[in-house]
Design brief:
By secondary structure, this protein is α/β, with parallel strands linked by helices. The protein has a single domain, classed as Rossmann fold. A 5-stranded parallel sheet has the order 2-7-1-8-9, sandwiched between helices. The protein has a 4-stranded mixed sheet with strand order 4-3-6-5. Strand 5 and strand 6 form a beta hairpin. Helix 1 crosses helix 7 and helix 5 packs antiparallel against helix 6. The mean pLDDT is 93. The chain binds guanosine-5'-monophosphate. The site of guanosine-5'-monophosphate has 15 residues, from strand 5, strand 6 and helix 4.
């Protein structure tokens, strides 16, 4: 059995990464979607162990010191990290793994796992990105401004990714992502 692939779905906050990963998982259920750890407090609709593992800053530090993170980054004032153990376990079982993480984390993973495939998700323009972040209603004006400033920088990284998905139309973007994953990891090769 060959090891699975790592697909990293990344790009600016508000580009729709979460929705695309959710739909990708629905279309290809044998992908394993990593659950990140964060120090960000849960939003009202989020649950521990499902959306994130919600940790205190002290717990996060302790896990970092113990070398438990494959990558970690501070994003908009909170810390986020991918737990190494569950990812390595799934890969060794031959499963493909999806990480939905920010660009800083994406490049850290590429350094440790050069075969990881980086997918950049973007909206048609900055105005659309702002509309989506505002529509989500989860952030204050100051937080929205921070996210848009970070996005300006992140958009410049597009050329260093393995694949770019333009999320102007969700169904088309999902098809694009599904096709890309299947082109790298065709369904039948996992059973050989
Ligand atoms: P949110 O707070 O809106 O859930 O996520 C904020 C940003 O953190 C998003 O860009 C998201 O992709 C990123 N993020 C979520 N989990 C991780 C992680 O484990 N590592 C890194 N580096 N970024 C993450």
């Amino acid at each position: 059995m060959s090891a699975g692939h790592v697909f990293i779905v990344s790009g600016p906050s508000g580009a729709g990464k979460g929705t695309l990963v959710h739909e990708l998982h629905r279309r290809i259920p044998n992908l394993w979607v990593s659950v990140s750890a964060t120090t960000r407090p849960p939003r009202p609709n989020e649950s521990d162990g499902v959306d994130y593992f919600f940790l205190t800053p002290i717990e996060f530090d302790a896990r970092e010191r113990a070398g438990e993170f494959l990558e970690e980054a501070s994003v908009h004032g909170n810390r986020y990290g991918t737990l190494r153990g569950p990812v390595e376990r799934r890969l060794s079982q031959g499963m493909d793994v999806i990480l939905e993480i920010d660009p800083q984390g994406a490049f850290q993973v590429r350094k440790h796992l050069p075969s990881a495939l980086l997918v950049f998700v973007k909206t048609a323009d900055a105005a659309e990105l702002e509309k989506r972040i505002r529509h989500r209603g989860a952030e204050t004006d100051a937080q929205i401004r921070t996210r848009l400033d970070t996005a300006q920088h992140e958009l410049k990284l597009e050329g260093t990714y393995d694949h770019v998905v333009l999320n102007d139309d969700v169904s088309r973007a999902v098809e694009d992502l599904v096709d890309y994953v299947r082109s790298v990891s065709p369904p039948d090769t996992k059973d050989l």
